[in-house]
Amino acid sequence: MKKVKRRAMSVLLIILCLMVGVGVFSYRFFHDGSQWVNFTANKHIYANGVLIGGAIYDRDGNPLVHTEDGVRKYSDNKNVRCATMHIVGDKKSNIATSLQKVYADELMGYNIINGTYSVSGTGNSIYTTLDADICAAAYKQLKGKKGAMCIYNYRTGEVICLVSTPTYDPENPPVISADDDSYEGVYLNRVLSSRFTPGSTYKLVTAAAAIDTIDDIFDQTFVCHRYEIINGQKIVCSGTHHEEDFPQALANSCNIAFGNISRQLGWETTVRYARQLGITEAHTLNGIKVVKGSIATSGGENELSWTGIGQHNDLVSPFAMMRCAGIIANHGMCVEPYLIEKITDSSGFRRTLPVSPDSTRCLSRNTADQLAEMMRNNVLTKYGEENFPQGMEICAKSGTAELDGGQTSHAWFIGFCRNENYPYAFVSFVQNGGNGARVAGGAVSKVLAEIQSKTDEA
Ligand SMILES: [Zn+2]
Fold first, then answer.
1. What would the CATH number be for the domain defined by 199-339+356-457?
2. Residues 52 and 37: beta-carbon distance below 8 Å
3. How confident is the model at residue 208 (pLDDT cuts 50, 70, 90)?
4. This prediction's pTM
5. CA 230 / ligand 1 centre spacing (Å)
6. Cα-to-centroid distance, 257 and ligand 1 (Å)
7. 269 CA to centre of ligand 1 in angstroms
8. How far is the CA of 380 from the centre of ligand 1 (A)?
């Protein structure tokens, strides 16, 4: 009897082990299955580490990358290849935020039931909202400097241009040594994954808070003598602006006036509007993570002043600044930017249903429109209407972000076309580029001109 009992216990133990084993396997199969398949040594889907299946197209159906006779091929146009490399991805999967990396499952046609089986063995296709010509134009205008340019439709959310430099031709990747400064951060997408001091572009956030919460802001007069002492430390301005009202202070980008406004707002309101306009919030672009911005949340009067001016500890992604310009353009409603129009399988069937992008109110219509008017005034009185495509009604704010250690300032230019025939908001950023309006504004102006002629032709 004892013997039978012992045997029964052994059998029970074996069954138990088996069940735990199957459980662990099933969990790992469902949880990690795509990673096993995506493993770069898998010869069924990778040739020399290069993904074989699946194509990525621009908005006009031009292939940005596809597979032909088992060979992975990028666009025929070298400028398009360089311009879209960060979004499409390189051959070695070095870029963590690329579609080839983030959407590897979809491109291969992987699913949990069939594995990587697809009818013709070509994987799925991703149709993006990008315009290859406009991306190439942005790449050319960044002129080999480190920078970022992103443009999206503030009514629909479609991202038509997303370019990060330095970049390289994915068909002919260079040998990059670790100490080569010209390729510093080449595998980072500067639009999405990098944070920089925003400088005066940030004054838009402070201005939005002021319109909403300071009753007499449009009746106030500011006096700038180039510098003043706050809490024993200097606030320095780029010029001596004498007497100015609120719109003039934004056009002059006066640090004295915006330091004063920030102190009227206080920390709580300053922090709340940074969040409300998405500066310090987490964003994703079709599942691709965007780095979160940050600002100081407490400190003395001097730190508060510099925080509202866009200096001190302020750090933002170019993507978040573009999104902020889009909110102002769209009368305070934010339509979330997106990059993927559809994904289809090899028979052309749509695999994902179109999702109407989220839209949320971030500013009142009145506040957004008053800010838009002030940004229009900036162009007319400071940046020069003649420097931008006629008829687009460009509204903008420049930024020349000061840096420690004698580095050349970052050049920023953010804004939008108020003429809704061209419903685009943009960010243009040149790392250590110098003057914001001239360098970053000049670069994006030429790209906007291409958008205008393309739109008018269509
Ligand atoms: Zn000033």
1. 3.40.710.10
2. no
3. very high
4. 0.89
5. 15
6. 7
7. 23
8. 19
From ligand 1's centre to the CA of 395, what distance in Å?
21
Ligand 1 centroid vs 204 CA: distance in angstroms?
16
Centroid of ligand 1 to alpha carbon of 247 (angstroms): 13
Q: At what angle do helices 255-276 and 301-309 cross, to 10 degrees?
A: 80
Q: How far is the CA of 130 from the centre of ligand 1 (A)?
A: 40
Q: How many residues does the chain have?
A: 458
Average pLDDT, the chain: 90
Contact yes or no for 423/117 (Cβ under 8 A): no
| Centroid of ligand 1 to alpha carbon of 298 (angstroms) | 24
Task: Using the mean position of ligand 1's atoms as its centre, give its distance from the Cα of residue 221 in Å.
Answer: 12
- Calculate ∠ Cα 5-8-9, nearest 5°: 85
**Within 229-347, where are the H helices?**
246-252, 255-276, 301-309, 318-329
Query: If you measure from the C-alpha of residue 223 to the centroid of ligand 1, how many angstroms do you get, rounded to a whole number?
Result: 8
287 alpha carbon – ligand 1 mean position (Å) = 42
Kindly provide the residue ranges of all beta strands, DSSP E only, lying in 52-183, ordered along the sequence. 55-57, 63-68, 71-74, 125-128, 147-153, 159-165
CA–centroid distance, residue 312 to ligand 1 (Å): 18
Residue matched to tokens 């691709």: 288
CA distances from 210 to 77, 147, 257, 267 (A): 47, 31, 12, 13
Is 170 exposed, middle or buried, given 0-12, 13-18 or 19+ CB atoms closer than 10 A? Answer: buried
Cα–ligand 1 centroid distance for 240 (angstroms): 5
How far apart CA 336 and CA 355 sit, in angstroms, is 11
Q: What percent of the chain has pLDDT over 70?
A: 89
The token pair that represents 117 in the structure block: 């089986």
Distance CA 346, CA 54 (A): 9
| CA 329 – CA 15 distance, rounded (Å) | 65
Per DSSP, 264 falls in state H
For residue 235, the CA-to-ligand 1 centroid distance in Å is: 10
Residue 118 has what pLDDT? Answer: 47
CA of 11: how far to CAs of 17, 18, 22, 25, 117, in Å? Answer: 10, 11, 17, 21, 39
Mean pLDDT to the nearest integer, 150-169: 98
Contacts of 456 (CB under 8 A, 6+ apart): none
Q: What is the pLDDT of residues 290-303, one digit of tens each?
A: 999 999 999 999 99
- Average pLDDT (150-177) is 96
261 alpha carbon – ligand 1 mean position (Å): 13
N-to-C CA span, the chain = 90
Neighbours of 365 (CB within 10 A): 12
d(CA 47, ligand 1 centre) in Å:
60
